[in-house]
Amino acid sequence: MSSTATASSGFSLFRFAAPHVFYPLAGRMVPWFAALAAVLTVAGLYVGFFVAPTDFQQGESYRIIFIHVPSAWMAMFLYVVMAFWAGVGLVFNTRLSAMMASAIAPTGALMAFIALWTGALWGRPTWGAYWVWDARLTSTLILLFLYLGFIALQAAIDDPRRADKASAVLALVGVVNVPIIYFSVQWWNTLHQGASVKPGGTSMAATMLTGMLLMVFAFWMYAIAAVLVRVRAILLERERRAAWVQELAARER
Predict the structure, then answer these.
(1) DSSP 82-119
(2) What is the DSSP letter of 53?
(3) Which pTM was predicted?
């Protein structure tokens, strides 16, 4: 490939980082990801609640894993992605990167809350208590507080640039909590069960695994759609004085 073609390809890729180019692109992607999320959710819940067999140890109560596990995975994954974009914005001073981090935080907080809530509902019949100060539960609660701290810090600082930098530092420091959550059941003697799905295989029945993976992809598609909707709103708010926003507003009148 010639150097001219390479430069052209790089330019065409980085042009999507421009707010006026990314905004309509995100708008076109939202319906597709939302539709995929809806279809996968229906399929995943059907398999999980009506096709998957009853667990021989936990009975019907185990079915909460089809919501609990995907939300817990997404809470950790979204935090890493949020910290990545916040770090890119901090190092390269790119506006869209910081806005992406801001857009991810509320969805990540929602996933952490769902994971804790469903975990409490699962813990009552399994452990006899809604909450115990288990290492994984406690570190997931800290994850929720990190998300809320990120959101609160941005809201507390009037200057968006300063808010982005301060919250980026918090996000990057908080990344250390993610491996603690993941490895907590291996590092400490906890009540929380170990992972049923591992790189080397799984102890779950095929229909159980299918239902859970469908829900994982459903949560993933929902998260992408929600983040894109939110980043479009942030773009309009922060770029409201830009010419392209003024033109967009004039066309929609």
Answers:
(1) HHHHHHHHHHH--HHHHHHHHHHHHHHHHHHHHHHHHH
(2) P
(3) 0.88
Distance of CA 76 to the CA centre of its chain: 7
Q: 3-class DSSP state for residue 55?
A: strand
Which contacts qualify for 55-58: CB closer than 8 Å, 24 or more apart? 58/125, 58/126
Residues 193/199/204/205 CA torsion (nearest 10 deg) = 180
d(C-alpha 149, C-alpha 155), whole Å: 10
User: What is the crossing angle of helices 95-127 and 65-92, to 10°?
Assistant: 150
SS3 content of the chain, % helix, strand, coil (to 5): 80, 0, 15
pLDDT tens digits, 55-99? 777 777 788 899 999 999 999 999 999 999 999 999 988 889 999
202 beta partners:
197
Three-state DSSP at 144 gives helix
State the pairing for strand pair 201-202/197-198: antiparallel
Highest mean predicted confidence (pLDDT) among 14-23, 189-198, 211-220: 211-220
The residue written with tokens 């829900």 in the block is 215
DSSP letters, 152-221, are HHHHH-SSHHHHHHHHHHHHHHHTTHHHHHHHHHHHS--SS---SEETTEESS-HHHHHHHHHHHHHHHH
Tell me the domain boundaries of the chain: 28-195+202-252
For 246-251, the CB contacts below 8 A with 24+ separation are 248/23
CB 154 within 8 A of CB 102: yes
Q: For residue 53, how many other CB atoms are within 10 A of its CB?
A: 8
